[in-house]
Amino acid sequence: MNKRMMEYKAIITGAMLSLSAFAANSLQAVDLYVSPAGSDAFVGTTQAKSVASLAKARDLARPYAGKQAVTVHVADGLYYLPETLTFASQDSGTATHPIVYRADNEGGAVLSGGSKLELDWTAYQDGIFQAKTPSGLEIDQLFIDGKAQRMARYPNYDPKKKTAAYQGFSADAFSKKRAANWADPTGGYIHAMHVQRWGGYHYRITGKDAKGEVTYEGGWQNNRQMGMHKDFRMVENIFEELDAAGEWFHNAKTSTLYYMPAAGVDMAKAAADQVYEAAGIGPEDIQVVELHDCFTANELLTYEALGLTAEGTAEKFIWDGDNTYGGRVVTNPSGGLLSKGHPLGATGLAQCTELVWQLRGDAGPRQVSGARHGLQHNLGLGGACVVTLYSAD
Fold it and tell me: In terms of domains, do 129 and 223 share one?
């Protein structure tokens, strides 16, 4: 009898242990992964199969809410939010089974309410470039290479006038004479100081009346309604005022973005970034470069624009010999423009020829050892820049 009872107890105890193990297994914590380099087609249960958006990660975590603890690992990078990202009470889980969002590195994950635009730029006129934008797009801020640009404005922004109103003001900012040059100022903005300089006013331009005077609405931001200052005024978001490097204007009616880049360097960087992304090859993979060294200073700036060296380090790059044989990358083994006389048109063909010879191993005494990838940079009249990548692979 005692033996049977002992056997019975052993069986029951074993069953309880088995059930406990099963229960612990079923409540195992869940790890989900999100990365800008991921895809929302993935399930997000491993880093290699990370989802791309926080919204997708949230939706994947919801079925576990209150049942299992969930950690959403957020990789470094920029996350664009095409719509408002909302969290309900269920997205917190419970005290015993919380849902936690944890950045891989503090400050490494950045959420942006903006949209990344993939644009095809073409020359417009007077150093201005244009590109078509998605229909219905609204823009009030523009960032290029991570730097905020300025709406087309009058008067132009002056970085030296650090204490001046709007760092550039004018009494005739929206005068009838000034507005005569504006085809359609609707959607522009007027900014003006209070007549006693007690704060300021902001207005939205609604158009022009039959007499050619600018019409506008707004100014409600200031509770001292005493009118604008007669001098401290400026306007922005006016197409005809796009005349300075770094300024932009978006025509929502035609879905066209206009932008005036700084001469040479910004175009070279933008073109190089597009080439690297399309080819899946970075500047660290380049062995030989033919670049448009029309001036000594331009060559110096182009090293940085092409990513051959970090911003502000071009001088050290040269002194260390990293721009020639025995260094990190060989630039202009052909002799550059000085060896050609800077012929229009033929310059680009000569660069192309040199790089093909280098990658074929046919460059003779100029041959760059181990050359597999070459980069061509050329500038043209009217603010044109072309960057081309050649590969022997």
Answer: yes
